[in-house]
Model the fold of this input.
Amino acid sequence: MAMENTCGPIWVFAEQAEGRIQDVSMQLVGKARDLAGALNVAVEVILLGDGMKDQIKFLFAAGADRVYLGDAPVLAWYQPEIYTGMIVSLAVEKKPEIMLIGSTCTGRELAPMVAARLKTGLTAHCIDLNINEDKILEQWIPAYGGLISIICPENRPQMATAAGGVFPKPAMDESRQGEVMLLEVPTELAGMIQTLEVVHREPESVPLESAATVVAGGVGAGDEKGWRQIADLARTLNAALGCTRPVVDEGWAEHGIMIGQSGKMVSPELYIGIGLSGELQHLIGVVGAKVMVAVNKDAKSPVFEQVDYGIVEDCRTFVPLLIEKIKAYRKRHAATYAGRDGQDSRDT
Amino acid sequence: MYRIIICVKAVPDPKRADHIRIDPVSKTLNRSEAPLVLNPLDKHAVEAALQIKETTAGAFLTVISMGPPEAGNIVRECLALGADEGILLSDRAFAGADTYATAFTLARGIEKIGRFDLIFCGMASSDGGTEWIGPQIATFLGVPVVTMVSELTETEQETWKVKACIENGYRLMQVKLPALFTVTRKLNSPRSLSFSGIVRARKKQIICWSAEDLGVAENMLGLSGSPTGVSAMTTRSSRRQVEIINGTGEEKAEKLVQKLADAGLV
Ligand SMILES: Cc1cc2nc3c(=O)[nH]c(=O)nc-3n(C[C@H](O)[C@H](O)[C@H](O)COP(=O)(O)OP(=O)(O)OC[C@H]3O[C@@H](n4cnc5c(N)ncnc54)[C@H](O)[C@@H]3O)c2cc1C
Ligand SMILES: Nc1ncnc2c1ncn2[C@@H]1O[C@H](COP(=O)(O)O)[C@@H](O)[C@H]1O
Done:
């Protein structure tokens, strides 16, 4: 275990859903491990759930030195009052230096409540974290054409959220050991607010985060019809469909498929961005794509500085053409594509 | 009768906000270029309150915003939509506030308004976009909060049931009023301004409160009341060497398909 220093440990809140620790939480534990080196402090994880004991080994393997476990039926679902209360009282006692939370729906509700109760700062949707020479956490976010680092110099803990995919999957070292501390859990739910039910639907298509091909549309689609063409292209390519924020604002697509700082992070082999300007808040969400393509009617669009292939065209005429050519190509190479045409035949 | 408070933010028009840049000297946002408009998601918060007013025995709707004097325009817009009272928290001392100091100031403003049953916020602002303000106001006021509300399922009693978005699904929450909800676009379709509403709103007075009116020490407000600050800025170099594909539309499409196929990506 790391030597404890004058400052407190680095904390990660490990979110679980249906008894499984979320990927983003594992990634944050990995990142915390990196940061802990610079501060020479321990990585500690708070895990709240029901029947979570067998998951703890993963947290140790990812870099945790200590796990505070709250294990009780009442914690199976995120319960705002109990979760906040348990984290806050433990933080008051243990004085962590840093607290990291995933930018999930739960994390985005929990983190600001914890920060307000601890009277400390919180930075949303970070895309990088590092410790500077003053041993302060720099929390990087895209803003207005560049990146800015936010710091919380005096108040503790320094709190930040980051989305899944911002930090890599940690290297798992199964030989790592750690300490488990059991937390006392209130036996009953408090009165003001309760989670009564949590319903998960099966996602209909390829999840954006793990898709090999992503087609993303911007507000340049022009209207609902233009947007549907882009959706058609995604279907033709068997790709996951993503969008920029103005597309959500226009009501063409749901918030859940927005790519970028405040949406999803993707890391496909192929990314095709159509009718979008390549603003950092969007493209920061495209990590390590092998090939990037942009279609934009404005030859001067900044998106063309950030892709491998650029096509200057009006997407409303070009996208149908592209769909046609893809289908034609596949027909020519039908033998290779035998059995892979399921998606194609549906819309012909 | 329900007392409903709606928090609304004046944001640089998201359709024109691309030109806002960071001031390299003061390290604060240079907001002067794009005109201020009502934050798009806050329209859904106002609509939620208006619908409650229309479908229950009665409700009194107070709109509150913290911002520069020009933010008064969006408060007036909410009055024109049907809110009963508009409050603008505006003071130089509020400037430069991070989310913590903003939520703290708004919570003090709401305390000054007095009794309330419901507070509605948008899920996120288009410029800050943290989603923190709602939950932090609720925390400072000591009331429960549900974020990303998509449906008000049961609203008859003192205890409400609401549905809120989560990844691939929803959660059903039971909440005792007074409570704060942040709303998503799914909740409703906001109405548009009516001419008669605009005329009516013109006669209404917007209440302006300063730091002194709130009775809060200046070191709790604005930049000095903010735990966080900007420490550094960089530009990102994610440049790739682009190859522009030329030809007629058809040729471009064909060439692109070929290139993708060569890379094994079709
Ligand atoms: C705090 C914060 C967080 C944000 N988070 C996100 C986020 O997570 N994800 C996100 O996407 N955005 C986010 N944004 C918004 C982001 O800054 C940009 O405003 C947004 O990404 C721009 O979307 P766009 O490219 O579709 O629109 P625009 O920037 O308006 O670009 C439209 C493009 O389409 C082109 N075009 C127009 N018509 C056509 C046509 N017929 N054919 C071809 N091209 C055409 C235009 O030339 C233009 O380049 C955030 C902003 C803030 C302030
Ligand atoms: N300055 C402000 N004045 C009033 N309400 C605000 C202000 N800033 C944020 N809000 C409210 O908080 C919501 C979320 O904002 P944010 O946390 O900035 O994403 C907004 O939709 C508003 O309802």
Notes: Residues 55 and 233 of chain A are 40 Å apart (CA to CA). Chain A touches chain B through 95 residues (CB under 8 Å). The first helix of chain A runs from residue 23 to 39.
